Amino acid sequence: MMIGIFEDHKIRNFYPLSLLRPIYDLRVGIKTNRERIVKSFEHDVVCVYMREYLKDLYNLKYGSEEEEYLINKEGELDSETILINGRLVLNKKTRENLKKFIEKDNVIVFSGGDIVLIKTTESVARKIENFLLKPLDEKKVKELKKIIVNHVEIPRKSIAMPEYLWDMVNMNAGLIREDLEERYVGKEWRAKYVDERVAILGEERLVYLDEGVEVEPYVVFNTKSGPIYVGKDTRIQAGARIEGPTYIGQKSIVVGGAQIREGSNLGDVCRAGGELEETIVLGYTNKYHLGFIGHSYIGEWVNIGAATNNSDLKDTYGTVRVTIRGKRIDTGILKVGCFIGDMVKTSIGVQIYTGKNIGVSSHLHGIVYEDVPSFTIYAKSLGVEPVELILESAIETQRRMMSRRGLTLTREEIEVIRKVYEMTMEDRKQAGVKKKRFKLP
Length: 441
Hints:
The protein is α/β, with parallel strands linked by helices and about 450 residues long. Helix content is about 20%, strand content about 25%. Strand 2 (about 25-30) and strand 3 form a beta hairpin.
């Protein structure tokens, strides 16, 4: 059995977070979609399909994994194959509702017009694998329907397949709870040091402290709303309060006095201070200081300056509208924060309005009351029109930030940054971003 994971045209709904990674490498709960898919099906080989510009970087990251991934390879689907949409989140309910289709031959499972899953024999797999080398669009879907004539439509409510980033944020807390209950609840701690003055409100069995964890005095774990996981070699400083369901990755620091509230999802090698709620944070991101971030999704290598806050609730208590590809979309949700791409930097005291998208490698100052394109220095509230961040400056800033974590910026990473800079030129042009030197008055 082979597994293939592909992207479709709705990857753009997940910008800026999907600009520097395949859609299936976004994390919700304690795993990425890719990790869930690989662990959910028995298989011999995993084929991953992605936008071509990501291929070399992906191979650098995962080429030495214990389980090798075949990346954008043609001629590899030589046995019975399950092809899965990378937006699919294989939680318990989704796995159960798709189980019966895995046993069929040559069937396409649809939901709301989107392909969820394709199960094929070897001969059909060979015919369609070239369709997957680029994100599936509506034209390719029509062609696939002619090749595989057995189609099944299932209700969207029976599976977890997000349409937008806020859908991932919305399902995150429940998925953390489900993941931790499956793997960690009730297990004996492996922590290096836990001070005797640490308090647990709720059931102790719902806290799991992994190998090498250090917990200083007067930390409070509150499990009344769900379980808490703290990853290997992470340090929780004195006076922090952590509510479940919450996931904290490896080698991170939770700063003294921090309020890590329900639904927090912190990646590896992060710093978390101030207040965090219902937010997914990918790896190597710093939020060291005072400030509130809620109902948001934040990329890698982001630095959030002191007293940076985002709004996640309108003054009118109405549903939040978000602009996606130039269209205003009503999320239908009362609480929506912001979506911050990789390598973004916020200066001291930045205030981000509800439902805003902040593009890759942008620098923010003052009040942010509109979406910010990638590679933009934004300080409108301070009387400065948006200015393009020089590409070489963005690369050098990233090099410096990585060196502070003992890492080196690679050629493959630089090439992806350059490509995303080129891809987002039109966004900056339409937003009136100028090519000139940034200078505060």
